[in-house]
Design a protein that fits this description.
The structure holds two protein chains of two kinds. By secondary structure, chain A is α+β, with helices and mostly antiparallel strands. Chain A contains three helices and three strands. The mean pLDDT of chain B is about 85. Classes of the chains: A alpha+beta, B mainly alpha. Chains A and B meet through helix 1, helix 2 and helix 3 of A and helix 1 of B.
Chain lengths: ~150, ~270
């Protein structure tokens, strides 16, 4: 009997994870797309030789954006099953994609008014075993003389 | 170099397969794999079980020896073994050292293990009031041996046990581990096998004692305790208990077996345990 309750509990958690998680993800993507449109004009590059010729730099400072983001229980289970059989764990792809884009957006939002962000790097690390990850984007924001 | 801002339209970093469909696909793959293994083991079991030689079975019997080691009721075992030996004199069974082992348990059951080992739970003996009744229970287990039901009864895991014994030997820890799991799981005989064992048991009982008294006594006691209606027995491993009583009484009438006296029996060693 107890096994039956455990099974029902598990199915309920998976169902909640699926429905709520899918909504949360959708909403986050909508937000990301809107903010990307706003910050599109600020270039963030991974190199350093992108300064304009004849530019006079008034300020250069480090900017960073960090986000801690978690996946839902449903995707956790799907990833677990994929771990059995091997192959692409597509359940986590949206998690990391959102994390990266969110971190870059936060970095750019920290650099309003900058002309370019150089030497951008993106790093991620696992926070917990339940599919929580921190994504950290950092770079050097350069401000030209206006 | 001029910077031209561009909107991300096609996200190449995310798989096009939605998570829900991925989930269903994984479940189907895993269940499919399990089903194939299950069916393969089923066929293998049907093939192997009737072909196990008595030597092989004796070797496999040693894997379960830890289950029989504990000798908590030596005098009771002697009593039970005595009745078993009487039955064995009049039977023509595969050659093993048939031995009765009494194990303390609250469950009312007796089990037939490979190589002639019969485990009788103490709770069953506490229900038994006559030698005739006990003889019938033991003869029923001998019936399973006669029909080699007990090997199939261990289930699909038995295939793995045989593979392990043949490749790694019966002394290996792997074989013992598999044996442990199998002995813990329930022994499954089909309803047909149970009825066949009952028929054999009655025949052997009468051959040994010329007395069919007490043959259905044990089942009658169990029937009094039975709460589940007949309809649920369609899927059960045991036949509906009243059907078994009818079968036994039917054969007694048909063959005109004499029904004489019951010889009482008691187990002082078990009475000490509460």
């Amino acid at each position: 009997m107890r096994d039956l309750f455990d099974l029902i509990y598990f199915c309920a958690m998976v169902a909640i994870g699926y429905f709520v998680g899918t909504q949360v993800e959708k909403k986050h993507y909508q937000e990301i797309i809107a903010r990307e449109a706003d910050t599109m004009k600020l270039p963030a590059v991974t190199g350093q030789d992108y300064l304009e010729d004849n530019a006079q730099i008034t300020e250069a400072r480090m900017v960073y954006g960090s986000v801690v983001i978690s996946t839902d229980y449903f995707r956790l289970i799907v990833a677990g099953l994929r771990n059995l059989l091997g192959g692409e764990v597509s359940a986590y792809e949206t998690l990391l994609d959102r994390g990266r884009r969110e971190a870059v957006l936060r970095m750019k939002e920290n650099a309003i008014g900058a002309d370019i962000i150089l030497n951008m790097r993106i790093e991620s690390c696992q926070i917990s075993q339940m599919g929580t990850v921190e994504v950290f984007a950092y770079g050097t924001a350069v401000y030209y003389k206006k | 170099m001029k910077f031209i801002p561009k909107e991300i339209r096609e996200n190449v970093n995310v798989s096009k397969v939605p998570a829900g469909r991925e989930f269903l696909r994984l479940i189907a793959e895993i269940l499919g794999a399990i089903l194939i293994v299950y069916l393969a083991l089923g066929f293998a079991l049907d093939y192997i079980a009737p072909r196990i030689s008595t030597d092989m079975e004796a070797a496999i019997g040693r894997i379960f020896s830890a289950k029989f080691a504990d000798n908590k009721y030596p005098k009771t075992e002697e009593q039970v073994q005595g009745i078993l030996n009487e039955l064995l004199k009049r039977s023509s069974l595969p050659k093993f050292d048939y031995a009765a082992h009494i194990t303390p348990s609250k469950e009312i059951n007796a089990l037939a293990f490979p190589a002639g080992n019969i485990i009788v739970y103490s709770a069953l003996l506490k229900e038994v009031k006559s030698r005739n009744e006990l003889a019938m229970v033991l003869a029923h287990e001998l019936g399973h041996f006669a029909h080699r039901d007990h090997l199939r009864g261990l289930g699909r895991g038995f295939v793995l046990l045989v593979l392990s014994s043949v490749t790694l030997g019966t002394d290996s820890t792997v074989s013992k581990f598999i044996g442990n799991i199998l002995s813990g799981a329930e022994m499954k005989f089909s309803q047909a096998q149970e009825k066949a064992a009952d028929t054999y048991a009655l025949g052997l009982l009468y051959k040994t004692y010329n007395n069919a008294a007490g043959a259905a006594d044990f089942y009658q006691k169990m029937a009094a305790k039975e709460k589940i209606p007949r309809i649920f027995y369609f899927f059960a491993t045991h036949p509906y208990i009243k059907d078994r009583i009818e079968l036994i009484n039917g054969i007694i009438k048909e063959k005109g077996y004499a029904v004489g006296f019951l010889t009482p029996i008691d187990f002082p060693e078990l009475a000490k345990d509460k």
